[in-house]
């Protein structure tokens, strides 16, 4: 008999195979249409990414672990570089999930200089306010030019059969990071102002996003 984790893994494998067959042939055309539709949003996000604006906000206004050099999160950045190359929604979500797992592991190694704890126990011992600044730093370091289009493509095309709570949690974090980056405008405004412009009710949204996964990280 399959346990829940094995079932999720099997379903995920089927989804990857099905989506590859479905999306790979027309992907370039579909993705081009998304980039065309969200060109302005992509441009705003990329401008903020180039100026490193959001990680500076977090570094000065919130308790965080954003480093001055990206080498600590090199594995997460490398994985984030692969996101535009993935041709199906589930593969893109898996890419985001892998990048965030690298972030969690790097955080733990940075804080405790050890790697003996399991990633399953580690991942949800950090809240959104610890993870989000680093995710935005990784997004900036990856210099992604189409982050907003990536979010919209995944959001629109994701299969209803994708029910892995951890992967959906990671995607929600990525959506939040991109939304805040896209809403960034003035040099003097506060992070709270940015969140309001992004239509994020910070306390409620953070509370919902920070809900612990019951599945853990396998």
From TrEMBL:
Entry protein name? VPS9 domain-containing protein
Residues forming the VPS9 domain are 39-190
Superkingdom per UniProt: Eukaryota
InterPro entries membership: VPS9 (IPR003123), VPS9_dom_sf (IPR037191)
| Provenance organism | Vannella robusta
């Amino acid at each position: 008999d399959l346990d829940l984790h094995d079932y999720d893994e099997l379903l995920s494998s089927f989804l990857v195979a099905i989506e590859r067959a479905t999306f790979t042939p027309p992907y370039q055309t579909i993705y081009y249409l998304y980039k065309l539709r969200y060109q302005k949003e992509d441009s705003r996000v990329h401008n903020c990414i180039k100026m490193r604006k959001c990680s500076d906000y977090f570094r000065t206004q919130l308790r965080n672990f954003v480093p001055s050099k990206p080498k600590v999160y090199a594995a997460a950045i490398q994985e984030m570089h692969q996101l535009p190359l993935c041709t199906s929604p589930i593969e893109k979500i898996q890419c985001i999930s892998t990048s965030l797992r690298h972030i969690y592991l790097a955080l733990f190694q940075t804080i405790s200089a050890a790697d003996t704890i399991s990633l399953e126990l580690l991942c949800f011992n950090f809240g959104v306010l610890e993870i989000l600044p680093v995710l935005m730093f990784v997004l900036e370091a990856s210099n992604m030019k189409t982050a907003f289009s990536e979010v919209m493509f995944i959001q629109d095309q994701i299969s209803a059969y994708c029910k892995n709570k951890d992967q959906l949690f990671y995607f929600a974090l990525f959506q939040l990071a991109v939304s805040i980056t896209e809403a960034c405008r003035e040099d003097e405004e506060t992070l709270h102002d940015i969140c309001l412009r992004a239509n994020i009710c910070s306390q409620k949204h953070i509370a919902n996003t920070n809900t612990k996964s019951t599945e853990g990280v396998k």
